[in-house]
Design brief:
single chain; alpha/beta; 6-stranded mixed β-sheet; 5-stranded mixed β-sheet; about 15% helix
Length: about 375
């Protein structure tokens, strides 16, 4: 993390507010001997709310703020005065954030749009004051409802980048070089073997002022879907891409075999990825002449568009943009809602360990004690009414 501020996986503790207690106050005023009950209702506890914010692109701001707690509702008071509602806790997250229960792996919610709000944990409803329970035969009730308790949960927030085109390939396939040559993104590039350690986004300009977003995903290796290398950590970013651009260098021993290996890793990780449109780019083709290209072309996978490119010389780049734009705008290639599967608890524990998020997050707090109510009221669910 010394060189990177990209954080796409955090574990935080969330706690909503509890509802305030209803008051059992009796009206006592001069010249009003039979004032009766006038205890007010308690306030609602604060919600934990997630809000999409397009100005964030990582979860870094939550990395060191692991406790999200909403305010408690205040108790009611005399004169049918309602208690103040607890303050909601709004957590700003980047678009594309998925939330899971850290203990069970259950999928909870998904935030995909700027300004979208999702109530993650509801605050407890405030208790009703004793004036609600006055009847003809019970004119001085000495009880009121307690507020509903708060909710608490430890959750995992996982970011899946939103992009139109995702680059898929082994390390050193030329993904970062392509992104830097056709967009303003500046990923790390060098003349020695290494792989990108974090995703990079770039906006690719097209004719007529049009553009699309391209994501450079860290290189995949064989077995990535089983946890080898960095692939398992970043494969999830490909789930939200509308189109997958497979990149295989021209000097590979078997281009078709490398493509099949990459495809199998995606299939193992999430079979639904195979429904996405695919394009194959043979990179580093500046080392090939037309005769070699003609020999390689019959060996390429059937059924997907392909193009020979060179990010250094510019060979085939304009053709590649045309193919990508055409495929992106096909009616059959629109992004559909992703079906998020619950996480396997065993694999979840390993993910937490790999991300350094396996430590238990515990928040100790003191329960507030209300002195004005000595009698607890046992109530049924139908006693509650939405206010």
């Amino acid at each position: 993390m010394a060189e990177s501020n990209f954080v796409d996986y955090v574990k935080i503790y969330c706690r909503s507010g509890k509802g305030g207690r209803g008051s059992t106050h009796m009206r006592r005023e001069k010249y009003c001997p039979n004032g009766g009950p006038d205890g007010g209702d308690g306030g609602r506890g604060g919600h934990i709310i997630l809000r999409g914010n397009r100005n964030y692109w990582t979860l870094l701001h939550l990395k060191y703020d692991r406790h999200a707690m909403a305010g408690h509702g205040e108790s009611g008071s005399k004169g049918r005065s309602f208690g103040k509602d607890g303050a909601d806790k709004i957590i700003e997250v980047p678009c594309g954030t998925v939330v899971y229960n850290a203990e069970t792996g259950e999928y909870l919610c998904d935030v995909t749009e700027d300004g979208q709000e999702v109530v993650l944990l509801k605050g407890g409803r405030g208790g009703q004051g004793n004036w609600h329970f006055k009847t003809a035969t019970r004119q001085a009730p000495s009880f009121a409802q307690p507020g509903e308790p708060m909710q608490e949960m430890t959750v995992i927030m996982e970011l899946k980048l939103l992009a139109d085109v995702g680059l898929v390939g082994f390390p050193n396939a030329g993904k970062s070089t392509l992104l830097s040559s056709i967009s303003a993104a500046k990923p790390k590039i060098a003349d020695y073997p290494f792989t990108t350690l974090e995703p990079n986004l770039g906006i690719v300009s097209y004719h007529g002022g049009k553009s699309f977003v391209m994501a450079d995903i860290p290189g995949i290796i064989e077995g990535a879907s089983q946890g080898k290398g960095l692939g398992l950590r970043f494969l999830r970013h490909i789930e939200r891409n509308s189109l997958l651009l497979f990149m295989v260098p021209a000097d590979s021993d078997d281009i078709r075999k490398e493509y099949e290996v990459l495809l199998n890793e995606l299939r193992t990780f999430n079979p639904e990825m195979l429904d996405k449109q695919r394009v194959l780019a043979v990179t580093k083709s500046d080392m090939l002449d037309q005769e070699l290209m003609d020999e390689i072309e019959p060996t390429l996978p059937e059924g997907i568009p392909h193009v020979f490119i060179s990010s250094v010389s510019g060979l085939g780049i304009s053709v590649l943009k045309d193919i990508l734009w055409e495929e992106l705008n096909k009616e059959s290639n629109k992004i559909e809602d992703i079906v998020h599967r619950p996480k396997d608890v065993t694999r979840l524990q390993q993910e937490l360990k790999d991300m350094g998020e396996d430590e238990d997050i515990v928040y100790e707090y003191e329960e507030d004690v209300d002195d004005d109510d000595d009698i607890d009221y046992e109530y049924e669910e139908e006693d509650w009414e939405e206010k």
